[in-house]
Design brief:
This is 3'(2'),5'-bisphosphate nucleotidase. InterPro entries: DPNP, Inositol_monoP_metal-BS, Inositol_monoP_superfamily, Inositol_monophosphatase-like. Belongs to the inositol monophosphatase superfamily. It comes from Wolfiporia cocos (strain MD-104). By secondary structure, the chain is α+β, with helices and mostly antiparallel strands. The protein has a domain of 123 residues: D-Maltodextrin-Binding Protein, domain 2 (3-Layer(aba) Sandwich). Helix content is 35%, strand content 20%. The strands form three sheets. It has a seven-stranded mixed β-sheet, with helices on both faces. It has a five-stranded mixed β-sheet with strand order 11-10-12-14-13, sandwiched between helices. A two-stranded antiparallel sheet has the order 1-2. Strand 7 and strand 8 form a beta hairpin. It is globular, with a radius of gyration of 20 Å. The protein starts with 5 loop residues before the first helix and ends with a helix. The protein binds 3'-phosphate-adenosine-5'-phosphate sulfate and magnesium ion (MG) (3 copies). The site of 3'-phosphate-adenosine-5'-phosphate sulfate has 21 residues, from strand 4 and helix 6.
Length: 355
């Protein structure tokens, strides 16, 4: 029996798995030598571009009518000064696209066959230029989320979501460096997290996601991890960590926060490894991007949790490429979530009174 979004799930898992193989090999071969700085000062590597070319090529072949909201664009690669970078991206994307088919993959997704030209790959990257919006289908793609974690050899994630009429229906997150079992941090690494709305949240092994091993169904305890702790950003520029500290105090949290780059935070939360993902704006006017939260949000909801902004309002994926004015993100088990909203309210009142 086929279930809703079966085809989309299969293509998305295959695309994310291939992208994870690509980014892992980029890290091993290239990261230490070479990075490029984008205007927003975030380091962009050949990994981001080639992974976006790969995933967009597969989506474009499998679902030619679907627009994509992707983080990267090809401008730096089209610039004459970017010729060496472009050649490297073309080689890496083609290596990933032409790798032999796995049992769960199909040639009609544009893989396992001929290499593409530079023009075809740059056009694939730019399929990600969609402006977003409230109606119809669209994919969101963050080819490497947590670029800074990636460059440090720590957590990062390949993040893909299908949004239909502004509601996230499918989320797939690949975490090459995340331990399969949080109780064994030194054990095997590499997981894919998959959530389809109405069908639950699951963890699969990255090495063989659709193989014999049954997917592990994930559930967030309503009362959170025991003892409770916070999941938060590593980069101080990305979230107001001093505010988190005060919220933790008000909640009576005694355990140290877990700092982790990327949407791996949502994955940790979904499997009960950490109690609250709290991301408060730093006050710079930065707008959160939909690709940084779309797959994580459906993963959390399908694991039984709740995700809102810091006022308790739902995240709105229909506003364009961003979530609009930044009121932060709060994700947790149901009971914990309402306690966190209360603690945020109190911490904000204290701030307003200048305490
Ligand atoms: N100022 C500011 N405020 C909030 N968020 C920002 C900001 N600047 C960047 N970004 C986005 O943060 C994404 C990485 O988020 P993380 O949760 O991995 O942050 S952290 O690295 O753990 O601090 C990161 O995603 P990637 O670029 O894919 O790494 C950015 O989209
Ligand atoms: Mg970035
Ligand atoms: Mg990101
Ligand atoms: Mg990114």
């Amino acid at each position: 029996m086929s279930t809703a979004y079966d085809a989309e799930r299969q293509v998305a898992v295959a695309a994310v798995r291939r992208a994870c193989v690509l980014t892992s090999s980029v890290f091993n071969k290239l990261v230490r030598n070479e990075t490029l700085t984008k205007d927003d000062k975030s380091p962009v590597t050949v990994g981001d571009f080639s992974a976006q070319a790969l995933v967009n090529t597969m989506l474009g072949r499998a679902f030619p009518d679907d627009p994509i909201v992707g983080e990267e664009d090809s401008a730096d690669l089209r610039d004459p000064s970017g010729a060496a970078l472009r050649d490297r991206v073309v080689a890496l994307a083609n290596e990933a696209l032409t790798a032999p088919l796995e049992a769960h993959e199909k040639a009609e997704w544009g893989i396992g066959g001929r290499a593409l030209t530079a023009d075809e790959l740059l056009a694939a990257i730019d399929r990600g230029n969609h402006a977003g919006g409230r109606t119809g289908r669209m994919w969101t793609l963050d080819p490497i989320d947590g670029t800074k974690g990636f460059l440090r050899g720590e957590q990062y994630a390949v993040c893909l979501a299908l949004v239909v009429d502004a509601r996230v229906e499918l989320g797939v997150i690949g975490c090459p460096n995340l331990p399969a079992d949080p109780a064994q941090p030194g054990g095997a690494r590499g997981c894919i997290f998959v959530a389809v709305r109405g069908q639950g949240a699951h963890q699969l092994p990255l090495a063989d996601p659709l193989g014999a091993a049954p997917p592990r169904r994930l559930a967030i305890p309503a009362f959170g991890a025991d003892p409770l702790n916070l999941l938060e950003s590593v980069e101080k520029a990305h979230a107001k960590l001093s505010f988190n500290e005060r919220v933790a105090q008000i909640l009576g949290v005694t355990r140290a926060p877990t700092r982790m780059d990327s949407q791996a935070k949502y994955c940790a939360l979904a499997r009960g490894d950490g109690g609250v993902y709290l991301r408060m704006p730093t006050g710079t006017g930065y707008r959160e991007k939909i690709w940084d939260h779309a797959p994580g949000s459906v993963l959390v909801e399908e694991a039984g949790g709740v995700i809102t902004d810091s006022r308790g309002e739902p995240l709105d994926f229909g506003l364009g490429r961003t979530l609009g004015e930044n009121f932060g993100v709060v994700a947790a088990g149901k009971e914990v979530h309402s306690r966190v909203l209360g603690a945020i309210k109190r911490a904000k009142e204290e701030e307003a009174q200048g305490q």
